[in-house]
Amino acid sequence: MSWTRPSGGCSGRSAGRRTRGADGRLTILYANHVGEASGAEFSLISMISQLDRQRFTPVAAIPHHGPLQAMLRRIDVPVATVPSLRLSRTRNPLSLARQGLDLLAFRRRLGALVGESGASILHANSIAAGLAATTLPRGMPPVVCHVRDLSFPRAAVDWIVSGSAAVIAISECVREAVLQAAPDAGERVRVIHNGIDPARFQPGKTRAEVRSMLGLAAGERLVGMVSQLVPWKQHERFLQTAAAVSERVKAVRFIIVGADLFGEHRDYVDSLYEQAAQLGLRERIIWAGYRDDVADLMHAMDVLVHPAEQEPLGRVVLEAMCVGTPCVAVDQCGPAELISSLESGMLTPPEPGAMAEAVVTLLTKAPLARAISAAAQEAVRTRFSALRAAQLTQKVYEDVLLRPPARRWLI
Questions:
Q1: Structural domains in the chain?
Q2: Is 406 exposed, middle or buried (0-12, 13-18, 19+ CB in 10 A)?
Q3: pTM of the model
Q4: So what's the pLDDT on residue 404?
Q5: In whole angstroms, what is the distance from residue 396 CA to residue 348 CA?
Q6: Helix (H) or strand (E) holding 104
């Protein structure tokens, strides 16, 4: 049996059926191209956890490497394994050939799982998964594709949009980027911001316990960054900001939470260690690596800094807001849609000096920090909850099944 979950399996039905199962529910098959868990995968988990199980049955097709399969099973989602599908831009003919074979293997397995699950909708959680889903043969269910990136090959997105019944962009800026690649997409591209479940994303330890675990002295402040160790997240800007803050606030430490998940940026990580030493931060900075207790660590922080430019959304910004940690972010793209500056966070230009000024303001003006904390938590509850994201996604499913658009097929 392909499908596994703690309580059993998933019975198969014929491919392409858009009818309800014996229990009256519609099956949604979620496909992801990797088994590791980062922002896109955490957002998928949050949304599925709030799906109306009286109306929809989620099942998932996930590579076996990484924790994502286990995370889905914990929320009672049957999981079947597909090959990993890591696609990247390259002119190397051998690399192109390998990626082509990987795409075909993923597509073949995904098509078989559509048949086994009897899915009414195939929901691709990434551009890579979307490429496979929109090249399946005739008779397959309609595709809903999530676009979670700002940087992508225009031709790939144009193909995905033309082959999808609906596209979900995680922010207005992502929607604009998709429409630049596929101007005729129009209303098929909808914006649904990622959501957080405030009841689930809560610290399990007290702030004092976590700060003690990290070795902080009494009265020391903690400023952090949470992100994969990849160049576009701009950790070097965080380090420059940290150096500027430490010149003005003496009792302050810094923490970087995250890792090079796919082992593709070792030189970049080494350069960050070297930069931290050159800036005199060796004794002030904590390299926490990949952690499962992000809510605990964020709650222990006095300020979270998110220095990335061209950020599609910034799930870590939402997570910080959820636990009431004031956030300083670059005034662009996704974070600018999440934060009302000086109300639920602080938005700045992308210069370290400007970001440091905002951090120092939050560290030294307690009433402002408390007001921002309360407003940020309220924004998550009312505008950026996982329940709201699930409800909007369910509306997409309903609309797709009523009016599936014409699709382009690869035979």
A1: 26-195+386-402 (3.40.50.2000), 207-383 (3.40.50.2000)
A2: exposed
A3: 0.91
A4: 53
A5: 34
A6: helix 93-117
